[in-house]
Amino acid sequence: MPNKDLGELLDLIAAFKNNLQRKQFSQAEKLVQKTTPILHKLGAFSLSASIDDKLFYLAREALELSAITSLHLSQDDPTNQALFTTSYKLLKPFYDREQALRMAKDPALERLNPSASQRNKITALYLVYLLSEGNITEFDTVLAGLRDVDEDSVKNDPMLKYPIDLAASMTDGRYNVAWEQLKQQARKKGNSEAVSGQAKLPEEFEIFSPVLLSTIQMWMAASAEKAYESLSISSAKDVLKLDSEGDVVEFAQARGWILRDGRIYFPQSETEPTQGSEQSASRASRSIIENSISYAQQLGTIV
């Protein structure tokens, strides 16, 4: 292994850490873009049994730092989330090898510095990303792979538990619960202590919250269309978690809803649903009715 190349990798890792510690990302995108070429030059993606152990864990660390840095960059430019997903996919073979050695109780695992691995954090962030994209199919695939090999870790790790609980609330139609989970995580961001006895997650989890909140609003809106013929604007504000009735009007216009006499009228589908889709719509309707009415009744606003 050329010493110069390994030196480049060590310098890259140091630069990533310095950027993250100082929260200075002006040069961070260049670091992310340099990561893959350096690792290719070192042969780090040829994960054969003969790969140098030190190269393995240094490459893993560089990719993890690249993934985390990409998320911070995405706050200013959402297109940089693509860099995060690329880093995750490059990391996956590293994590798979670690897991295979762990399952086999192979002592070779210790040579890969497993305590330094951020596997659970990066995987949990990827799961949150998939939720923000509404990609439940891929979410389930990744989660199933984790559970097949390490069920205890999935159950007990607070970082993995966060997207799992969030997904359960969203897919079950418990949108109020999902909304509060996200809001609670946002409140934790500025606190040094955990809220309500729950673990405080790394700050990167908060990066997805605005998009996730918007995603939940879209799911709420879709379910409301199935559940109601109309709603008063004040009730729609509560159901959709909007800040003002003016926001409701803007939201309704964007979705093509009809506004008349202080109410929103949802356009009804003119096509005849199949039995399967009809049952699915019915389940979604019941969920939104139960959650929305319960929430609104607490406020005394349902009309």
TrEMBL record:
It comes from the Eukaryota. The keyword Endoplasmic reticulum does not apply. It holds the Pfam family CSN8_PSD8_EIF3K. GO terms for cellular component: cytosol; nucleus; proteasome regulatory particle, lid subcomplex. One of its GO terms (biological process) is proteasome-mediated ubiquitin-dependent protein catabolic process. Keywords: Proteasome. Residues 121-273 form the CSN8/PSMD8/EIF3K domain. InterPro entries: 26S_Psome_Rpn12, CSN8_PSD8_EIF3K. The keyword Nucleotide-binding does not apply. This is CSN8/PSMD8/EIF3K domain-containing protein.
